[in-house]
Amino acid sequence: MKGVGFRKARGEDVSLLAEIERASFLPTEAFPKRHIRSLLRNVHGTILSEVILWDDEVAGWACWMFRRGSRVVRLYSLALFPSFRGRGIGEAYLRERFKEFSRVYAFCHLEVRVSNERAQALYRRLGFEVKERLPLYYGDEDGYRMRLDLQSYRSL
Predict the structure, then answer these.
(1) What is the pLDDT of residue 44?
(2) Helices first, then strands: H and E counts in the chain
(3) Would you list the domain boundaries of the chain?
């Protein structure tokens, strides 16, 4: 396969996902293996973790959360290895997922650090809007809650 792809993350991916986390976030923010394991074991079927691929190479991972009966999907985490950033991989992956999710969900929510201007620029390109400022959401820094109306992806 050429270009962006993805597959469901499996138990044997825990170390790989932890490596992506460590390469992407501060040590105090990267998910530890035990947290990643709990996300992958989700017995309620309300969490979807995926390995993001670029030309069949592992580029990163994403984690989505759902609530039964809700029309909202939440992007809980998105991380790419540094060597894959800046190539449009995250944007291509998200566009694909939003097309699929728009069949079932009305909105996508996410939280992002106020200082993470690069991620905010990506999310705005995709159609997200800031809906709320979250004081000290990250402990030491405010965050933004952003929302995307997925209906704009329905016809794509």
Answers:
(1) 84
(2) 4, 7
(3) 4-153
